[in-house]
UniProtKB/TrEMBL annotation:
Domain Isopropylmalate dehydrogenase-like residues, every copy: 43-392
Catalytic activity: (2R,3S)-3-isopropylmalate + NAD(+) = 4-methyl-2-oxopentanoate + CO2 + NADH
Entry keyword Amino-acid biosynthesis: yes
Taxon lineage: Eukaryota, Viridiplantae, Streptophyta, Embryophyta, Tracheophyta
Keywords: Amino-acid biosynthesis, Branched-chain amino acid biosynthesis, Leucine biosynthesis, Magnesium, Manganese, Metal-binding, NAD, Oxidoreductase
Organism the protein comes from: Prunus dulcis (Almond)
Protein name, entry field: 3-isopropylmalate dehydrogenase
């Protein structure tokens, strides 16, 4: 099944309900892993990557397996290298075999890429180049990044409770255009003979129009508010962005559209994040703003993402990095990857019941007070990556999600 953007599909719902009561149902007896015989089969490509990537992918795979077995789904996995791991094995950050495996699967789950070891490599030999080429190769142009402050973690936010409580927003980021891919780019010398580096921010109309429609559809199915973020007071590319967004807005008279310069948007996300519902922006601004939004929730280790295209498999990944300083120490927070697996089920495979089961299990685990170091506070129980995964597994096996 392709993880395509079905704009007329069932409404997007927040990845996690801020109200755990609406997500959880009464506990039943322990459900056997063999409770349902597999009736649906999907192929998933796993890309553990670098740093903490292998640790969080291992946990997420276990959670996926259990949720699938309970819901009568069977997964076939293929694990292939990407990023620094691929560089060490093959000499390139995205081997042809890895991209081919990803394209031939139903969905792709990525851990993390990068690390100090490869920081001094030439650009074409950096792990991050492999990720950009993977996105480009899969043609996943729409990146959905939810940021929801859960009641259980509101005090983990660095913002005051009254500012953070109730935040529930979605950043829709254009993923395969803009300055990360624009040409010309490179190094050279200027008229004074000085060495320079340069990149080009460029967007074609079709690139803006398609991400705009995804954003308007997403906003329509949330609270009907869309804020387009640009830098139209300075950049021609942003002036064109705003022009196209306004043109597409005519197709969505029921959605309230506003515009905001990126510097103001960065400030407003900290000052009053609840004013936002759905944000649409270009590649580089979306990269920065979604990471900023993640910290409102308490930890970047909590946030998943989905990258989708018009056809083919989707790419699902936590938005955190590879955290090489804690790699192999059982300190990583696996919840963002587990929730990325839930997004994979929901948006990539259309397996809503299994996705809801995982989402409910994460909330249940947090309700029980289990915390990794990044979200720990007094009165909660500090656990490592593996134990957090084990607790989520217990909840996956004992909770029944609300009907789809």
């Amino acid at each position: 099944m392709a993880a395509c953007l079905q704009l007329n599909a069932k409404p997007f719902s927040p990845l996690l309900s801020p109200n755990p009561v609406s997500t959880r149902t009464r506990k039943l007896g322990r459900i056997s892993c063999s409770a349902a015989s597999p009736s649906k089969r999907h192929t998933i490509t796993l890309l553990p990557g670098d740093g903490i990537g292998p640790e969080v992918i291992s946990v997420a795979r276990n959670v996926l397996n259990l949720a699938a077995s309970v819901e009568g789904i069977e997964f076939k996995y293929q694990e292939v290298p990407v990023g620094g791991a691929a560089l060490d094995l093959t000499g390139v950050p995205l081997p042809e075999e890895t991209l081919l495996a990803a394209k031939q699967s139903d969905a792709v789950l990525l851990g993390a890429i990068g690390g100090y070891k490869w920081d001094k490599n030439e650009k074409h030999l950096k792990p991050e180049t492999g990720l950009l080429k993977l996105r480009e190769g899969l043609k996943v142009f729409a990146n959905l990044r939810p940021a929801t402050v859960l009641p259980q973690l509101v005090d983990a936010s660095t913002l005051k409770r009254e500012v953070a409580e109730g935040v529930d927003l979605m950043v829709v980021r254009e993923l395969t255009g803009g300055i990360y891919f624009g040409k010309p780019r490179g190094f050279g010398t200027n008229e004074n003979g000085e060495e320079i580096g340069f990149n080009t921010e460029v967007y074609a109309a079709y690139e803006i129009d398609r991400i705009a429609r995804v954003a308007f559809e997403t906003a329509r199915k949330r609270k009907g508010k869309l804020c387009s973020v640009d830098k139209a007071n300075v950049l021609e590319a942003s002036m064109f962005w705003r022009k196209r967004i306004m043109a597409i807005a005519l197709e969505y008279p029921d959605v309230e559209l506003s515009h905001m310069y990126v510097d103001n948007a960065a400030m407003q996300l900290v000052r009053d994040p609840k004013q936002f519902d759905t944000i649409v922006t270009n590649n580089i601004f979306g990269d920065i703003l979604s990471d900023e939004a993640s910290m409102i929730t308490g930890s970047i280790g909590m946030l998943p993402s989905a990258s989708l295209g018009e056809s083919g498999p989707g790419l699902f990944e936590p938005i955190h990095g590879s955290a090489p300083d804690i790699a192999g120490q059982d300190k990583a927070n696996p919840l963002a990857t587990i929730l990325s697996a839930a997004m994979l089920l929901k948006y990539g495979l259309g397996e809503e019941k299994a996705a809801k089961r995982i989402e409910a299990a994460v909330l249940d685990t947090l309700n029980k007070g289990f915390r990794t170091g990044d979200i720990y506070s007094a009165g909660t129980k500090l656990v490592g990556c593996k134990e957090m995964g084990e607790e989520v597994l217990k909840s996956v096996d004992s909770l029944v999600p609300s009907p789809v």
